[in-house]
Specification:
- By secondary structure, this protein is α/β, with parallel strands linked by helices.
- The protein folds into two domains: about 60 residues; about 210 residues, 3-Layer(aba) Sandwich (Rossmann fold), CATH 3.40.50.
- The chain has twelve helices and twelve strands.
- The strands form three sheets. The protein has a six-stranded parallel sheet, sandwiched between helices. Strands 2-3-1-4 form a four-stranded antiparallel sheet, covered by helices on one side. Strands 8-9 form a two-stranded antiparallel ribbon.
- It is elongated, with a radius of gyration of 20 Å.
Length: about 280
């Protein structure tokens, strides 16, 4: 295995040396001040705690792994591809952000069933003018750091992209067109006479729904699970991530970090690329 080290800051030489010894690696390859690879590394129980304390993201990656091994990248939207929770920002237009955000946080921690939490949150938006959705997209929606580098990187290797969200089609469809994503799916907000009704028609895209969409597209592309990468930040992403050959928790809740194959706690989304062997 190779031990990949990444940080937003220059990784101290002392930290590299310490991890070199802990992992019993045979060689250090310094790609930049903020990225290096320790070859022939072995796991050690102290590595995780040390790296977290030093604000270093780490990952054990098979030496033979290459981006061409993969054919599909599946991403959550809110707080993963983008920096906001769209429903919280929509609620802010109604002066209800604290109430909705509290339900969002509980759902992301896995304390509330996602479908029920979504219904409760959307019900609070009843009567909101539909133009509030465009305002959120224009004024508040921002890509997380490194998003465009990540998408360019996977695109160079022919990896297809799926954005699947427990959020709303209004946002996923715009991001799909803007970023050139291959597939996108999310929930629909019911709008009548220009106003949100507070209802979500159809089957809600919950944790099981995300996993089902991953497998639907994977089968369509004739890929084995090992060729799929899935990335998310909340409990609602765990079933989806469990279906993938490589799972990545991005700035995630503790329950997700502990169950994912890799966790990026500090660097941007482009930190995914070294974990794919690039």
């Amino acid at each position: 295995m190779n031990l990949i080290l990444q940080a937003l800051h220059a990784i101290p030489a002392a930290a590299i040396e310490h991890l070199f010894v802990l992992s019993r690696a045979t060689q250090v390859e310094q790609n930049s001040a903020r990225l290096c690879r320790l070859r022939d590394a072995q796991p050690h129980p102290d590595i995780a705690g040390y790296c977290f304390a030093q604000q270093i993201d780490y990952g054990f990656v098979p030496q033979a792994r290459h981006p061409s091994d993969f054919g599909l990248l599946v991403m959550d939207m809110d707080s993963t591809l983008i920096s906001i929770e769209c429903i919280d920002e929509i609620a802010d237009m109604q002066g209800l952000k604290p109430q909705v955000a509290a339900i969002t946080e509980a759902a992301m921690r896995g304390e509330i069933d996602f479908a029920e939490s979504l219904r409760r949150r959307v019900a609070l938006l009843e009567g909101l003018d539909e133009h509030a959705l465009q305002r959120v997209y224009d004024e508040r929606l921002r890509l997380n750091p490194g998003a465009e580098k990540l998408l360019a990187g996977v695109g160079q290797h022919g990896i297809r992209t799926l954005l699947v969200s427990g959020g709303f089609l209004f946002f996923t469809e715009r991001l799909k067109a803007r970023l050139g994503l291959d597939f996108a799916h999310a929930n629909q907000l019911e709008i009548i006479n220009g106003k949100l009704t507070g209802k979500v028609p159809g089957k809600i895209v919950d944790a099981r729904g995300k996993a089902d969409w991953l497998n639907r597209i994977r089968v369509e592309l004739e890929l084995q699970p090992a060729r799929v990468i899935a990335m998310g930040d909340g409990a609602n992403d765990l079933k989806m991530m469990a279906e993938a050959g490589v799972s990545i928790a991005y700035h995630a809740k503790p329950i997700v970090r502990t169950q994912a194959g890799h966790a990026l706690n500090f660097v941007g989304l482009d930190g995914v690329l070294p974990l794919l062997g690039q």
